[in-house]
Amino acid sequence: MTTKMRSEIAEQPAALRATLDALLPRVDEVKGLAGGARQLVFIARGTSDNAAVYGRYLIEAHAGRLSSLAAPSIATTYKRKLDLGGVLAVALSQSGRTEEIVETLAWAKDCGASTVAITNGGEESPLAQAADLALCTVAGEEKAVPATKTYTTQLAALAVLALGLGADVDADDLQRVPDAVEALIADPGDLDAVVDGLAEVSGVVVSGRGMAFSTALETALKLKEACYLHAMGLSYADLLHGPIAVVDESTPALLIAAGEGPTLQGTVALARRVTGAGASAFGVGGGDELAAASTAALNGPALPEWVAPMGLIIPGQLVTEALARRRGIDPDSPRGLNKVTQTD
């Protein structure tokens, strides 16, 4: 039986095409609202927070604007007012109905920020209504609890946001993303070997750096919520500062990199260090070099680094779905989780 999660993974090329068709014509609207912003702050939780990490790296590396992740409790619990003049506040929520995120975006506007919502909940969602500009993704209804197509379309919306902020990238790269994702779904690489390597372990370290860091965090979250693994998502820079001690014969590493870019060589070196210590290193992306340094490898997208995260997450989603079934878990309905999470 095909799970809802597996079906929704397969729907991502179409969801990305629809989202890009809807949002690319709105680049000038983003520029008009946010072109003069000196700084960005991203407001999100969970999977959306992992998407925001991609937004942060993308905006800082390619649009030259300082970016940070908000602490919503400053608005909702501590109720402190900050000076957010000249700041663009970007709130991400798949449903657009998470009250904490809506409240924090309204707080940011009250503090002087211009506001953008990124949501799959539509123009009538509370989050879209609270924002100066809503970038609504076109992923369609997502029925499985683990987010797949709503996550990748959030990344697409963040890429459009970056274009509106003058990012020094080739906008035509975005048009290549749906086909690259489709190719990965058809041929993810050595999926069975990676699932075999994770089937009997209780923990795994998932690591990437720079643009791939968001993918490491999101992959770790998926393995935690749908496979009940103790999955630790880390930048490889942080991993080398001490937590690498947990990587051993019973705790493998999943190492993620785009096929180009300044973090690739560090990821390859880490794979060699892990396997040299007798542990398993499973590569995701990184081209032939990372694959050669790894115990087993999953394919990455044939995309430039700035858009690669939209493809790099696909192998992690496929591993999560297959591993959950291997461990006797229904990936569509993990225990203790709901599709919309409200936070006090």
TrEMBL record:
Keywords, in A-Z order: Repeat
Gene Ontology biological process terms in this record: carbohydrate derivative metabolic process
Keyword Nucleotide-binding among record annotations: no
Source taxon at top rank: Bacteria
One term of GO molecular function: carbohydrate derivative binding
Cross-referenced InterPro entries: GlmS/AgaS_SIS (IPR035466), GlmS/FrlB_SIS (IPR035490), SIS_dom (IPR001347), SIS_dom_sf (IPR046348)
Pfam families referenced in this protein's UniProt entry, alphabetically: SIS
Domain SIS: start-end pairs: 29-172, 194-334
Protein name in UniProt: SIS domain-containing protein
Species per Swiss-Prot/TrEMBL record: Sphaerisporangium album
